[in-house]
Amino acid sequence: LPTEHIHDIKNDGKNSQSKTRAHCYLEVPSKNITVARGASWCKLLALASVLKRGYSNVVLVDSDMFFQLNAPTITSLIDKYRGPRTNSAEPIVWFTSDYPADATRPNAALQIWQTNHDKEAAWRLLRHWWQTDKSAQEHAYEQSALFKILKIEEKAKGTTNSSNLEQCRVGLLDLRTMDREQWHNPNYVVHLCSYDKRFREEVMKPPFEKIFNNKKSNSAGTQDNPPVYVLSVAESKQMQEILAEQENHIAC
Question: Cβ distance 98 to 110 under 8 Å?
């Protein structure tokens, strides 16, 4: 980012320039739609990029969320925190709870995509989400669009209809990552949301130092050095075009 945004990053509010400055665009020529979107929307392009590379199990982790050193594996998290479902179809994507704002709705900071059982449905859902024109440069960005798809009223606390989630193949984990009482729990997943930056150094620095020290002492082996992909401007534009493609059937 340009240097004039550096102060803004350190003190970013819900609609800071570092978030609202357009990084990607919703462009649907057939509907004459061109919408500049804030940085948070671009995570959907990253998801599309990874799915297009052939990965079936994808975990998206926001920069203010991290797994404590003794946190359970992804599979264990789902098994432990998933709720009962009336629909036999397994979710394509799992989200954690938006507690304390509302424990009955999802938070998009941690996304666990499991697409092996229905890759086409995953693409339909991702396209539906991308093409939902809501909160382009206002908080809560792509999460507000997700609420719209799931028919969740942002101000209607505790009224989420679970059938809407199931119809969209979305799973909700009762994992309260923004619960401050859990932020020092070494067995938990932590979401240090932007308005709580004073906790970041206190909570994140110790485990990160351990991780970095371990990396330095053990740099060999593919498991410790997975491939790194950087989403270029050209690929970003390509993903925008792919996600803007029209589906014969909407996701939900």
Answer: no
Per-residue pLDDT of 143-152, as tens digits, reads 999 999 998 8
Of 243, 216, 1, the residue nearest 122 (C-alpha): 243
The Cα 172–Cα 107 span in angstroms is 9
Handedness of CA 147, 120, 42, 250 (dihedral sign): negative
Record the tokens describing residue 70, joined without a space.
Answer: 């003794």
- Give residue-wise pLDDT tens across range 69-124: 889 999 999 999 998 776 678 899 999 999 998 998 999 999 999 999 899 999 99
pTM of the predicted model, to two decimals?
0.84
- How far is the C-alpha of 175 from the C-alpha of 112, rounded, in Å? 13
Measured CA to CA, the distance from residue 250 to residue 252 in angstroms comes to 6
Helix residue spans in the chain (DSSP H): 6-10, 17-20, 43-52, 74-81, 119-130, 142-149, 162-167, 200-217, 233-243
Assigned token pair, 112? 């666990």
pLDDT number for residue 32 = 82
pLDDT at 210: 78
73 DSSP 8-state letter: P
- Residue 191: helix, strand or coil by DSSP? strand
Rounded to whole angstroms, the Cα distance separating 32 from 12 reads 33
The tokens describing 203, both together, are 């909570």
Residue 166: HSE in the Cβ half-sphere, 13 Å Cα cutoff: 11
User: Which structure tokens are listed for 38?
Assistant: 């804030």
